[in-house]
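Per-record layout

source: Aliidiomarina soli
name: Succinate-semialdehyde dehydrogenase (NADP(+))
length: 484
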Amino acid sequence: MSKLSRDELLSKAMYINGNWLQGEATFDVSNPASGEVVGQVASASQKNVEQAIDAAHKALQSWRRCTAEQRGKKLRQWYDAIMEHQQPLAEIMTLEQGKPVAEAAGEIAYGASFVEWFAEEARRVRGDILPLLSEGQQTRVIKQPVGVVGCITPWNFPNAMITRKVAPALAAGCTVVVKPPTLTPLSALALAVLAEKVGIPPGVINIVPTDDAKMFSETLCNNEKVRKLSFTGSTKVGQNLMRLCAENVMKVSLELGGNAPFIVFDDADLDVAVEQFIACKFRNAGQTCISANRVLVQNDIHDAFVEKLSAAMKDLKIGDGMQNGVDMGPLINQDAVEKAQKLVRDALEQGATSELEGGQRKDIGALFYAPELLTGIRNDMKIANTEIFAPVVAVQRFDTEDDGIQLANDTEYGLAAYFCASSVQRIHRVSEALEAGLVGINAGAISNALHPFGGMKQSGIGREGSHYGIDEYLEIKTLIQGNL
């Protein structure tokens, strides 16, 4: 296909049944770095959502009958198109979300890797033939697509959170209705432009932006044609969606909130610990669900670690994501800034110490927030029990290995956890003791299409990515045949 420019990828209409629809209402999408309106995007009505569900249900009948090779081929073409347009897609993301364009380009490649992976996994869905129970009888186990899938995605990874859900759904033979976030819908619509260009059939992918999230959720979950919901977002919203899905006993995948610990033990290589922590914490300005939220440092090396970390944080450059050499862009909106300010203020009032002159940088722009490093944090402080979603580092001390593990697990969440250590014995002990779906060991960057991604406890249900990810979109059917 011919290379498309950024403007050609910047669609602002709904994509339903292969058609681009304007709708009766719109909402603004703004650049968080400048506050300028990037565009006005069509806001779907209930009728539009129902149209998308009907289109997906109709397309399901033919898409599920395609061979695994045919579905995989279309996904591979979509992957190639995404990577061919990596730079313009990254620029669109930076305009609406704020992260540095180099980081955004990394997300485009990361998101595309799920399309590539599941293009290959489509042909690896397999069942079983069970041992004979009696003469003349055979039992087979087959896997079939669950049906129409509703996807609700967050603003912090506007490309990858789409592909991580849509690619396995399509590989399994499902069709999808996607609600992208109102803050960052343009990346999702750009993906639909490319899906259309490579010939993914009408109705297989439907992108339905709307500023009425409640209407979308209720319309989707109350429609018996929809058989699965995949949601990434807060635990509170996920709980409400799960209640809605219960009425029709709809299959659900939920990737919810986190409160990830980053433990630094006294046998850790501190240079490695600091390097991996920076990679983990400051990606997307700390606005990730697996970002280190609580830094737990063993007493003997606390001061040395804080000194090294403080120096590394001072080197981070913040600014407009379109500028060269920028490490961190703005926070997504004013609510995010105020939340960070409130958490820091509360911690300081309760005895924490600020080691850096971080905080809001109005000289750059209203939503820019310089990295903040707090020490003297206690587990009873609000900042230790809240998903920060900002470049604020909150450091706690602990004495023994068991104390560190207990602190790490003392949360209702269990999405990700990190620790740094050298002892092989300690690595094995701590890895198995931590209550989290993903554990980084001397590693701060842990997401990959090959890895099962998902949480324990109130951090969610199900897994995305890896060969486990496609199972979320399949039903198991047992066939018992006699009189053979």
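summary: Residues 94 and 448 are 22 Å apart (CA to CA). DSSP finds 14 helices and 24 strands in the chain.
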